[in-house]
Each structure stands twice: as structure tokens, then as C-alpha cells.
Amino acid sequence: MSAPQRQAGTQEGRAARATGGDGAPERTRRLGARDLALIAVFAALIVVLGMPGALFAGTAVPITLQTLGVMLAAGLLGWRRGALVSLTIIVLVAVGLPVLAGGRGGLGVFAGPTVGYLLAWVPAAMVTGYLLERARRLNAAVVFGAMVLGGIVVIHLFGIVGMMWRAELSLSAALVADAVFLPGDLIKAVLATAVALGVYRAVPDLLPRRPRA
């Protein structure tokens, strides 16, 4: 193969990754059957991760495995589909389905102290997915950093505000209550990173890629 041919093939490969492989820009590409199936599968995964139940460690906000599913959805599907996965769960909660850990669901959840953590799932997925889509390299440090920024920092910021609002805690009290979740969430970020790196190698076209020039 000549040098011009190799260069053309490289440019075509970059274009395919930037468009999701179907010729349409990722930002404007409509969701296809494969996208909808993936969103449904990862929404189901988040529900399944809630089945072990919830642990209340001296706070009104439970410790669950479901944020691991939020990290995985964003890290493997990208910001757009990952956010839709989280939005699907929030809608299911709103209509009364017991899809949260401990069998919780219904509008009452949005009046409780956990509302900030729950609503944060969408922006958390957007941040995580966007960072990974735009990353030049998907190594362990980059993936873990994206998981931490989206899956921990964003969710905890929203969670702290939610506890101050719905539980009427002071900022210091909310920070102390929130700190209980940090060790477990760091472990989830490590697990999500390990799973994501394995999936990237096995299914390299699953995550839409638009790396910065």
C-alpha cells in the first residue's frame, strides 16, 4: 500500500470513529436500534445492581452499587447514551417503579435527602462520557480520572446540595455525611476502570471517539 493510500485509510478510520461508524456526526446522529438496545441493557444493569439492597451507614442516604452502573454506562457508551441510561432510571422512579436499591421508587424519592445523588446521575454520565470520548488515549489513568470526576465529584456535589436542601443540614454536616460514601465510590471507580479497559480492547467501537486534535 502506498503512502497516500495509508494516509487516506487513516483519515477514513478517524472519520468513522468520529461519526459512530455510520457517516453521521455523533452530535446529530439519531439513535438506532443498537443504541436503544444498549441503553435498555445498561438501565437493566443499574436496576440489577440495586438488588443486593441498600446499606444505611448512620445517614439517611443509602450506600448502594448503582453508581457503579452509572459509571459503566457512561464509560462504555459515551456521554449521550450514558446520560439517557440514567435518565431512563429517573423516569422509571418518577412513575413509581421500585428500581432503586431497597425497592425504592415513586415521587417521594424526589422529596427525600437522596434526590441530589439521584438527579446527579445524568450530569455525571455526561461528564464521564464526554471526557472519555475526547481523550487522546484511553489508559488506566485517563479512564480512572474520568470516572472520579463524573462518577464521584459531580455526584457528591449534587448530593451535598440535596442533603442541605431536603435534610436541612448545614454545609459541614452534609460534608461529614457525604464522606461516608467516598471509600466505596473510589472502589467502584477502580472496578469501572478495570471493566472499561477490558471492554475497550474487546469491543473498540462501542465508545464513540472524538479525540481532541
From TrEMBL:
Pfam families: BioY (PF02632). The chain crosses the membrane at residues 36-57, 63-79, 84-103, 115-132, 144-166, 186-203. Residues 1-27 are annotated as: Disordered. GO terms for molecular function: biotin transmembrane transporter activity. GO terms for cellular component: plasma membrane. Residues 1-10 have a biased composition (Polar residues). The keyword Transmembrane applies. InterPro entries: BioY. Signal peptide: none annotated. Keywords: Cell membrane, Membrane, Transmembrane, Transmembrane helix, Transport. It is a multi-pass membrane protein. It is found in: Cell membrane. Belongs to the BioY family. PANTHER family: BIOTIN TRANSPORTER BIOY, BIOTIN TRANSPORTER BIOY-RELATED. This is Biotin transporter. It comes from Kineosphaera limosa NBRC 100340.
